[in-house]
């Protein structure tokens, strides 16, 4: 199967920029994981004529049309009416969905207005996608050789409903199994990775190998199609080994959500604790680590020592050193890491001091210059990193904290350091 998909997001709020199309982002990622080709995204307001035009166009260029939004009870929730109309279908009351909606209101103790039952009006003969997270059911039908799937807009409904009901629906359209694994790479840019692997990427057809750049990282997705999952795994394995042989320890994980999750997992396995002292990163390192569920056994805490007084009073950084060299230097990074390790009582402590920008600091240190120090019982590793910030503080902070996470991984695993 090589189905093509068009995603249609319905909602004037999206067009006005009041909300971002995060459903589209999620669905695109998931669909490509399923081996489906998303060729177009369309966004259209709550306007029946324009939605109908977009649907008619989607019919000419996609096998699967997936809509989000516009399924609710309010007057502008028009997706089902328009889509049913475009495919010559009537909307009929689905008694089971109506009963579920009544039950939902009883459960939350709210009075149901009659327009809520409109949500149970569904295209005749459709597969109902029961929504356990809200009142508007989704639905799917096949007509004119196209598959049409409608999902509610709120991400807290759209995402679980997609996982629960749409993935099985789409899997049935496929003969055989499509399986993907992602190798996560840190420490080499996308174009350099691509240059190393280009020849192999062009040669490979099953599995395919494709790179995706993500915030200073590269994801290499290997996708195989086979009769069974085992057979797909067998196709993926040699390609994965080949990529690992080429990229070595730049690969930090397989199907690993992020560098921080890899680091948390690693520290848990090794039974090590971590703390941090952050100046220019303002707590981002601590945030990234604590975003990972299950980080509490390894992460004790952090000090956001933004001004020099705090560096001295809480972390014991020598005031004379700060006076002489300023906060942005390797010696201060080292003293911060040692101080954090001591006050937090951790096996490892990492520090960040640098210039988030925009522009240089008062001592002329360039924007994007960050010193990172990682202290263990045996040593302190200090690294200088330079991110071209372009006036974006987030970019500098994010890149510095990624470097720091990679340093933790390298020190704990005894990998080479640059
Ligand atoms: P409801 O039952 O809540 O009316 P619905 O399917 O009718 O659901 P909409 O009314 O179109 O959905 O949107 C409801 C809310 O869902 C929006 O206000 C917005 O917060 C969120 N939402 C809608 N579409 C998207 C999208 N594509 N990405 C992210 N959020 C969205």
Description:
The chain is of the alpha/beta class. It contains 14 helices and 17 strands. It has helices at residues 12-16, 22-33, 48-61, 79-86, 95-108, 155-173, 190-203, 229-247, 259-270, 284-290, 308-315, 319-325, 330-344, 393-413, and strands spanning 4-10, 37-44, 64-68, 91-93, 121-123, 127-129, 138-143, 146-151, 177-186, 208-214, 217-226, 251-254, 274-278, 299-304, 348-354, 369-375, 380-386. Strands 2-1-3-8-7-6 form a six-stranded mixed β-sheet, with helices on both faces. Strands 14-13-15-16-17 form a five-stranded mixed β-sheet, with helices on both faces. The chain has a four-stranded antiparallel β-sheet with strand order 10-11-9-12, covered by helices on one side. The two termini are 45 Å apart.
Which helices and strands, and how do they pair?
Elements: E1 4-10, H1 12-16, H2 22-33, E2 37-44, H3 48-61, E3 64-68, H4 79-86, E4 91-93, H5 95-108, E5 121-123, E6 127-129, E7 138-143, E8 146-151, H6 155-173, E9 177-186, H7 190-203, E10 208-214, E11 217-226, H8 229-247, E12 251-254, H9 259-270, E13 274-278, H10 284-290, E14 299-304, H11 308-315, H12 319-325, H13 330-344, E15 348-354, E16 369-375, E17 380-386, H14 393-413
Helix pairs in contact: 2-6, 3-4, 9-14
The site of adenosine-5'-triphosphate (ATP) has 23 residues, from β1, α1 and α2.
Quick gist of this model?
This protein is of the alpha/beta class and 418 residues long.
List keywords for this structure.
single chain, 418 residues, alpha/beta, five-stranded mixed beta sheet, 14 helices, 17 strands, binds adenosine-5'-triphosphate
